[in-house]
Amino acid sequence: MPLTRLNEEQYKAATSKHTKNLIIASAGTGKTSTIVGRIAYLLQNGVQPQEILLLTFTNKAAAEMVSRVAEFFGKSVAGKIDAGTFHAVSYRWLKKKDKRVVLKQQRELKTLFRSVFEKRSFGHIDADVQAWGGNYLYDIYSYYQNTELQKDFYNWLLKNHPEHEEFAMIYADVVDEFEKLKNEFGFLNFNDLLLKFRDLCKNEHLGYKEVLVDEYQDTNALQGTLIDAMDPPSLFCVGDYDQSIYAFNGADITIIGSFTQKYRDAVVHTLTKNYRSSKPILSLANKVIEINERIYPKNLEVTRSDVDIAPKLLAYDELFDQYHGVADMISRSSTPHQDIAVIFRNNSSADGIEVALREINITCKRKGGTSFFDSKEVKGVLDLYTLLVNESDMMAFIHLFEYAKGIGSAMAKELYMALKNLGQGSMFYGLYAPDESLKNPFEKRKLNHQLGLFDDFLELGAVGKFAKLGFEAKFMKNPILKHPKLTKEGAVFLHHFYVLFRDLKGIKQPRAIVRKIASSELFCYIADHLATKRAMQKDGKVDEKQQQEALVRIERKMQLLQELSQPYSEHERFLNAMILGSSDLSQGEGVNLLSVHASKGLEYKEVYAVDLMDGRFPNRKLMLRSGSLDEERRLFYVAVTRAKDILYLSFARYDKIKKQNFVASQFVYEAGLIPKDESYSQMVLQELNKVED
């Protein structure tokens, strides 16, 4: 049974009779085994599986733990445990209560946000700073939702960004209009899921006897209040303050730090035996991380004695010499490529390593960049599929029509609303059976100079300019074509859209729908647009070979999407699986290229931590935004503790492209790989002064 496999510390935590337990589980100390052991203990002591809630930070982690429980208690029991991310659990509960819930990923909702933002003008405001762009304002608002519990957005802006006071009223009005649109069309983003689920928890008893929280150090204020709203009889939180690395997403390390103050009857259990890393690697990691303040006392013990290879520092004269040097070392390593990881702080580092590896025909897979489901071509197909299932999904329409030349998100929203007006509430009726008596289906724009709203909508245009494009007579009669800013390219895109959804009518199987979409003229237009953009060189010319390669990669993704749709026979189940399960799909083979954040929870025999130059790692720019030197040090700790046997730390002294000199990261000095001297002390002092300034 799971409990018999635990060491003394793990067993004591897993079988605790206290109702408020915090388990400090450092890297490689067996937190997963402890959580599985705790679930086993609960099941053996009369708690029903459906009375257990396991909250994790990835669906993959939840699935792994439930699978391990199933090995001992069977799938029928393990399958009744409510397990998943905060968002997945919230979504399931809200979907039970309201079938109309439409979940949208944060990146997707930026499209809707931009459609509101792009109507605003800031040119009439004389300010010392430049107004934020739509995407950045959306990120600011998302951060606000995750961290602020009392102030409204306008007053929060005034306090946290006083330099933008002149724009604050417009920013806040954009957010208000955005929220009204979301409510009107039933859209929920990931923050909304937690907010609405929190309200549900306050008003309804969910029946959980124990809530287990994995990666507790990465909870943010919103997730913290959600746990509070559940108010479970028993709480079992597992985390490590030295691995709190999500401040940029609102993670609050004080939540784990104040556990014993919040729960006066709390008991803290500490797992000290490390089963992953060799003694030299763990010694290096501890030497650096111990510089940070110790929130809870801990002293890690090494259990392995089979490997004793000291971590090695690799110093290169030039940046790309480093990338090629690391690639060459990997080519000569006896470690299987799938058990080697290159870990980076910045995406530009991964680009250099990936190119260097591919030049010598070493395959690699990258995690922490653009995933399969985040690729524009896959999102395009899923947006088209979404509209087939739910024509009220205005955001999917807007996102698609941004591909049409001359149509931005604001104009796409106008076209959608006009089609709804023409169809008396139905976008598709407006497309195929419009009310032709409605001469002007476009809504009159609001005017409010104070809020940056100006009227730039001209008189209705004539459809005669589209006469030679070969459109069907019925389509040519649609008043939607009278939008004064609709170009010929935009009209062609709209006609492709018209033809595709007419042809999709009556198709039932998800795989057949994906195949039909992927072969349509509309998607071919989108694919060609993406391939051309990806093959565009700095001088504006298109590299035809790169363009064809891009088209081939898009075609491969379409084949994979068809394979993923094969097991499904219902539209909504397929779409929900693509939205909620997308982040756990991994592709490719070979050497693992990972951002530090993406490496969390993983382990490899051989690890290369690259670009350890001051300014890059620690990343001083990100420290100024939402991080700190302590957080950068925790990122370094996470990176090096992914290594089991072999660890290389590398840096370069010069970047010939940017003509920039580098000094080694202060973490390299703190690890004792370079002796500390006067120049080190001066360097650290200078950089700290920059941050304070």
Tell me about this structure.
The chain is of the alpha/beta class and 693 residues long. The chain has 4 domains: 2-98 and 195-271, Rossmann fold (3-Layer(aba) Sandwich), CATH 3.40.50.300; 105-188; 301-369 and 589-692, P-loop containing nucleotide triphosphate hydrolases (Rossmann fold, 3-Layer(aba) Sandwich), CATH 3.40.50; 374-582. 49% of the residues lie in helices and 11% in strands. The strands form 5 sheets. Strands 3-2-6-7-1-8 form a 6-stranded parallel beta sheet. The longest helix has 22 residues, at 544-565. The chain is globular and about 80 Å long. Residues 581-587 have low confidence and may be disordered.
Summarize the biggest pleated sheet. 6 strands, parallel
- Poorly predicted runs are 581-587
Number of strands: 18
SS content category: alpha/beta
- Globally, the shape reads globular
Number of domains: 4
- End-to-end C-alpha gap: 57 Å
